[in-house]
From TrEMBL:
Its EC number is 2.1.1.198. This is Ribosomal RNA small subunit methyltransferase I. Residues 40-249 form the ATP-grasp domain. Belongs to the methyltransferase superfamily. RsmI family. PROSITE patterns: ATP_GRASP (PS50975). It comes from Shimia isoporae. It holds the Pfam family TP_methylase. The gene is rsmI.
């Protein structure tokens, strides 16, 4: 059926792909990918013949023209499968503008769901998962990073960040400064891969560990939600006084 099919691909281990995702990749008229080389490799690993189908390069910065080309394929009645380099498209990955464009045209937009580092990390971290907030990648500069962490400090759920190994020590130190070094946190590294590792501890401990032994590979940082604030006796008194004053006016 004509439309846009978002296909989730592995985040480390090539066999972490659904049978339906492979079916869609096998039958789509057009395959588009953030990284055409890794797409071709994935198809090869799973024995999906490409035949004479094109593998088109697309990321959201490819611009209007590349997007229009994919839209034209759908308008002509073709199915277009799109995958980002790893994991679920649109999750810290391209696909958003494509999704919007297809939806605006009223085309079928559907997916073959699969791995994402957010969900994989949450399922292993041992932090509450009833509510969580995905904060994506933080900015590069310290000032902007601190401001971004501050903005999510009181979110009532587990915080999930993507981070690069180069910056993770600095990010953990900044998070400890802004959120308090005693918050529980987890650094999930190289998920589903040979050197998968979960470091658990307080933000202070993880920051110190990352400074001493710089982690390598792909990383998700999770931080427990803020504890409910307990008002001090002074704050309670001030609130009561305020309430009484407004009543006597
Ligand atoms: N679309 C992907 C997803 O659904 O998770 C995320 C793509 S984003 C460009 C790449 C970032 O995701 C990495 O820098 C890292 O923070 C995280 N990530 C991806 N694969 C990972 C893995 N195997 N282990 C830990 N983190 C991973």
């Amino acid at each position: 059926q004509a439309g846009l099919y978002f296909v989730a691909t592995p985040i480390g281990t090539a066999r972490d792909i659904t049978l339906r995702a492979l079916d869609i990749l096998a039958s789509a008229d057009v395959i588009a990918a953030e990284d055409t080389r890794s797409m071709k490799r994935l198809l090869e690993i799973h024995g999906v013949p490409l035949g004479d189908r094109p593998v088109l390069s697309y990321h959201d910065h490819s611009g209007e023209k590349a997007r229009a080309k994919l839209m034209a394929h759908i308008a002509d009645g073709r199915s277009v499968a799109y995958a980002s380099e790893a994991g679920t498209p649109l999750i810290a990955d391209p696909g958003y503008h494509l999704s919007r464009a297809a939806a605006e045209e009223g085309y079928l937009v559907t997916s073959a769901p699969g791995p994402s580092a957010i969900i994989t990390a949450l399922s292993l971290a041992g932090l509450p998962t009833d509510a969580f907030f995905f904060a994506g990648f933080l900015p590069n500069t310290r000032k902007a990073r601190m401001t971004s962490i501050e903005a999510v400090a009181d979110v009532p759920g587990t915080l999930v960040f993507y981070e690069s190994p180069k910056r993770v020590a600095a990010m953990l130190a900044d998070a400890a400064d802004v959120l308090g070094g005693q918050r529980q946190a987890v650094m999930a590294r190289e998920l589903t891969k040979k050197f998968e590792e979960l470091r658990r501890g307080t933000l202070d401990e993880l920051a110190q560990g990352a400074a001493e032994v710089p982690p390598k590979g792909e990383i998700v940082v999770l931080v427990e939600k803020a504890k409910a604030k307990v008002a001090s006796p002074e704050e309670i008194e001030a609130a009561l006084r305020g309430a009484l004053e407004t009543q006597s006016v």
